[in-house]
């Protein structure tokens, strides 16, 4: 039996740490392994250091993963635990997403200060969110609302809300659950009117292609339904835009051997959108996502993307 501990890479935010611990606990349970077989290694990423500008402006999603991926590639880490939502659609050569933990709730939650629901906020209210998707979907529902860029860890955003900087903010329900903070939630948004980000609520594990020892270990905690749903959603995202500059939402659900996906792209002002639904065999999860993305791209035309990006 192998005795060298597995080195698990994670960011240092409370949410990232909770997710790394969840992955480790599931591995210990699945394999009956002691805690000493795992070492959690915390790294700070560029995305953690720069918190005053929107992600799209400072270079997109890779900012949360680059430092972890460098240490993975060099063998300093055996695997890294991430929010799947934060993963770029194209990974560095030699790395892959080898396991997904069972998915948490995919929906967005409202944390309202002056009213519980978005539709009940006072006229001209201010909502804080750095997500282009959330900003566009809020404007679609409430064109009078002023949306301001609001970044930082979940705790920072809740503090800014408490201080009265905004009337409300939106956060992923999954993150709030993992942090044990559901009591702040004042409303939960229906995914059909307020679609989540692709891969929202899912934790993925990244490892080196060909590292059989690690991938054998991880296979025991992979959740196939999450794997297939998120593969579809990520393929949809990749077919449309990997850059994080286009508001994109969508989610897939697996039922038996079938998979159902619905997705949308929307302009930042919330006035124009194209949506798609598709279903097929789960085996073709990624191909279904790609087809849905290509379908939207063909209908929207390139001008949809040119007009504002
Ligand atoms: N981009 C930040 C991020 N990445 C993952 C989550 C939440 C957890 C998840 O969606 O799995 C969050 C915070 C949020 O959107 O509220």
What does the secondary structure layout of this molecule look like, with pairings?
Layout: E1 6-11, H1 14-31, E2 38-43, H2 46-49, H3 55-58, H4 66-73, E3 79-83, E4 95-100, E5 108-112, E6 126-128, H5 132-141, E7 146-148, H6 154-162, E8 168-172, H7 173-178, E9 187-188, E10 203-208, H8 212-219, H9 224-240, E11 248-255, E12 258-266, E13 273-281, H10 285-300, H11 302-306
Parallel strand pairs: 1-2, 1-3, 6-7, 6-8
Antiparallel strand pairs: 3-10, 4-10, 5-8, 5-9, 11-12, 12-13
Helix pairs in contact: 9-10
The structure holds ligand PBG.
Verbal overview:
It comes from Rhizobium mongolense. Belongs to the HMBS family. Monomer. This is Porphobilinogen deaminase. This protein has 3 domains: 1-101 and 202-222, D-Maltodextrin-Binding Protein, domain 2 (3-Layer(aba) Sandwich), CATH 3.40.190.10; 108-188, Periplasmic binding protein-like II (D-Maltodextrin-Binding Protein, domain 2); 224-309, Porphobilinogen deaminase, C-terminal domain (Double Stranded RNA Binding Domain), CATH 3.30.160. The chain is 34% helix and 24% strand. It has helices at residues 14-31, 46-49, 55-58, 66-73, 132-141, 154-162, 173-178, 212-219, 224-240, 285-300, 302-306, and strands at residues 6-11, 38-43, 79-83, 95-100, 108-112, 126-128, 146-148, 168-172, 187-188, 203-208, 248-255, 258-266, 273-281. The chain has a 5-stranded mixed sheet with strand order 2-1-3-10-4, with helices on both faces. A hairpin with a 6-residue loop joins strand 12 (258-266) and strand 13. Residues 83, 85-86, 171-172, 174-175, 200-201 line the site of ligand PBG. The ligand NCc1[nH]cc(CCC(=O)O)c1CC(=O)O binds at residues 83, 85-86, 171-172, 174-175, 200-201.
